[in-house]
């Protein structure tokens, strides 16, 4: 009979919970970022499960397995390190960019993973010992730094000033960066020899418990899993039609240029209920109605400020034409989204 110590048992439960959360998130809804996060949990749990198997063989001499099966499980587990990095980075992009869509070009990030996956029955341990493990760690670290950059650089630190769902999202992503950073340290060549195979697995289990608590806590307020509107009903077709009509209306008629625009009036133009429109905007862009409209007004103002033919217009005139009802509101909102006042932005454009 295989003996299992407490730390191994804790790691097993953590890995199992990782798989359970992956299934829960996958079926929660069909948003791209949730699917990516679900796959990330699966890939990481598989990688940690490999360490648990190795640890079990170290502490129990009775633990045995056919050589070909052992080689396959080891290769299969380690290979998933080449999937963790790309999934982590793409998840961050999907959460931070409202226009993010998975494209065929993104599959190139997974080329090393797929190549090694097909060779899981044949790769020998010297490959991992001499170069593979180092490459896999460098891969994860590189994608981690890219995700870090994507989370901290946008809009020159303006994320800290965001309200509502946008700020909640970035707070969550930064918490995830911290948890992942600790795991990266645990699996770094410098610390791995002290923590061993099971040390990182236990830290992963703790990380999964922390993530679980964050997700369950946020479930009632906003949400990271998009459950804010779980008490209302909007079909997938209605959601898609609303977003399609909204984009068309905003491009062709620019209703945001009306300073008196309200959720009610915009919903009437689209022939939908106000709460359905609010829900569609939140689910598509992770923004409130006012955030969504102000962002369009700022973009319109930027276009006019960069137009040489409108260089003679006063800043206030451009603000009013873009839909703002006052100069002070225009200045503060523009700076919130760009990090500059309209006049600073205009001067910078003139110099370039």
TrEMBL record:
PROSITE patterns: HTH_ARAC_FAMILY_1, HTH_ARAC_FAMILY_2
InterPro entries referenced in this protein's UniProt entry, alphabetically: Homeodomain-like_sf, HTH_AraC, HTH_AraC-typ_CS
Highest taxon listed in the record's lineage: Bacteria
Database matches in SUPFAM superfamilies: Homeodomain-like
Signal peptide (UniProt feature, chain positions): none
Keywords of this entry: DNA-binding, Membrane, Transcription, Transcription regulation, Transmembrane, Transmembrane helix
Name of the molecule in the record: Helix-turn-helix transcriptional regulator
């Amino acid at each position: 009979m295989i003996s299992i110590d407490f730390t191994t048992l804790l790691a097993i439960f953590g890995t199992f919970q990782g798989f359970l959360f992956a299934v829960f998130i996958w079926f929660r809804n069909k948003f791209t970022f949730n699917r990516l996060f679900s796959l990330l949990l699966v890939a990481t749990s598989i990688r940690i499960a490999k360490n648990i198997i190795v640890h079990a063989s170290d502490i129990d001499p009775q633990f045995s397995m056919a050589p070909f099966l052992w080689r396959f499980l080891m290769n299969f587990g380690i290979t998933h390190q080449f999937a963790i990095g790309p999934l982590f980075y793409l998840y961050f992009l999907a959460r931070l960019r409202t226009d993010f869509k998975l494209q065929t070009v993104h599959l190139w990030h997974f080329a090393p993973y797929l190549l090694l996956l097909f060779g899981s029955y044949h790769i020998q341990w010297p490959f991992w010992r001499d170069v593979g493990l180092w490459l896999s760690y460098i891969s994860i670290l590189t994608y981690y730094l890219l995700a870090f950059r994507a989370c901290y650089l946008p809009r020159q630190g303006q994320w800290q000033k965001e309200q509502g769902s946008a700020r909640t999202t970035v707070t969550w992503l930064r918490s995830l960066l911290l948890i992942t950073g600790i795991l990266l340290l645990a699996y770094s060549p410098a610390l791995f020899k002290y923590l061993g195979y099971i040390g990182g697995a236990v830290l992963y289990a703790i990380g999964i418990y922390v993530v679980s608590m964050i997700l369950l806590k946020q479930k009632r307020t906003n949400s990271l899993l998009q459950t804010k509107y779980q008490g209302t009903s909007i079909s997938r077709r209605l959601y898609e039609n609303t977003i399609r009509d909204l984009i068309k209306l905003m491009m062709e008629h620019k209703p945001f240029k009306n300073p008196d625009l309200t959720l009610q009036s915009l919903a009437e133009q689209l022939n939908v209920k106000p709460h359905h429109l609010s829900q569609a905007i939140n689910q598509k862009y992770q923004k409130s109605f006012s955030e969504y409209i102000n962002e369009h007004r700022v973009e319109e103002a930027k276009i006019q400020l960069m137009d040489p033919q409108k260089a003679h217009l006063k800043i206030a005139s451009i603000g009013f034409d873009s839909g703002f009802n006052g100069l002070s509101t225009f200045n503060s909102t523009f700076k919130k989204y760009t990090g500059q006042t309209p006049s600073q932005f205009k001067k910078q454009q003139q110099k370039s």
